[in-house]
Design a protein that fits this description.
Strand content: 5-15%
Largest sheet: 6 strands, parallel
Strand order of the largest sheet: 3-2-1-4-5-6
Structural class: alpha/beta
Number of helices: 11
Mean pLDDT: 95
Number of strands: 6
Radius of gyration: 17 Å
Number of domains: 2
C-alpha cells in the first residue's frame, strides 16, 4: 500500500526553461543552441556539464558559477523561484495530501534550493536536497535516506521523477514503486526506452499521480 509520494525537483516540480535561458546568455549563445546541446546530452546519456564544454571548451562550472555570483549577486542566475513551478504542482500535491498521502520533496539540488522550495509554501510534509544530505541520486544511500525521513518501508513509497537513470531505476532497486513523468527532455526521451517498462506507471502530468498512487495500493 502506498503511503508516501516523493517528488524529484528539476523538470518534475520546477520548469528549468528560465534557468537554461539565463545560462545561454551567460555563455553568449542563443537559448536554441544551449537547449539543442542539452537535448543531445540527454539522448547520449551524458551529463549537463558536457553541453557547456561543447559550447565553451575548457569550461569550469565551479569557476563560472562563482564568477556569475560576483557579477550578479542579487540575480536569480542558475536559481529558481515560485515563478518556475509547473502549473500543476500545487493542486496535484494538495490533492495527494487531501487523499491521505504523505508528500515529500527530495531531489538532486544544492542547499539554496531548499530555501527556495520552503519559501514557496508548497503542500508538502518535508523538503530535502542532495547537498543537504551529502548524498545524491542515483546513490542507493539517497533512497535509503528517503525511506528514513518518510518513516516508511520502501514498498510504501512512490517515487516520481523525469529520469530513468536518476529516479525510476535506482528507486526501484531500493524497493520503491516508481512513476516516470514525461516532462522535460529526459522525461520524453526516457519514456520511449525499453527500460521505461520498469516504471510502475508513466504519467504525462502530476494530476495523474494521485490515481496512480491509489491504484498501486
Amino acid at each position: 500500500m502506498i503511503k508516501a509520494v516523493v517528488f524529484d525537483v528539476g523538470e518534475t516540480l520546477i520548469d528549468e526553461t528560465r534557468i537554461w535561458s539565463r545560462w545561454a546568455g551567460r555563455l553568449g549563445v542563443s537559448s536554441f543552441v544551449l537547449m539543442g546541446a542539452l537535448g543531445g546530452m540527454a539522448a547520449l546519456d551524458r551529463p549537463h556539464a558536457d553541453a557547456f564544454e561543447l559550447i565553451r571548451p575548457g569550461f569550469d562550472l565551479d569557476e563560472e558559477d562563482a564568477a556569475w555570483e560576483r557579477d550578479d549577486p542579487h540575480g536569480l542566475r542558475n536559481h529558481f523561484d515560485a515563478d518556475d513551478l509547473y502549473p500543476d504542482v500545487r493542486e496535484a500535491l494538495a490533492a495527494l495530501r487531501a487523499a491521505g498521502f504523505q508528500v515529500i520533496i527530495a531531489g538532486n539540488q544544492p542547499k539554496r534550493a531548499y530555501d527556495a522550495l520552503v519559501a514557496m509554501d508548497l503542500p508538502a510534509d518535508s523538503v530535502h536536497t542532495s547537498e543537504g544530505w551529502g548524498l545524491s541520486k542515483p546513490q542507493p544511500e539517497f533512497f535509503t535516506k528517503v525511506a528514513a525521513v518518510a518513516g516508511r518501508e520502501p514498498a510504501e513509497i512512490l517515487y516520481v521523477g523525469d529520469r530513468l537513470d536518476n529516479d525510476v531505476l535506482p528507486a526501484g532497486r531500493a524497493g520503491m514503486r516508481t512513476a516516470l513523468l514525461r516532462r522535460g527532455p529526459w522525461g520524453y526521451l526516457h519514456a520511449e526506452r525499453p527500460e521505461a517498462a520498469a516504471a510502475d506507471v508513466i504519467v504525462d502530468d502530476l494530476h495523474a499521480v494521485l490515481s496512480a498512487a491509489q491504484r498501486l495500493t
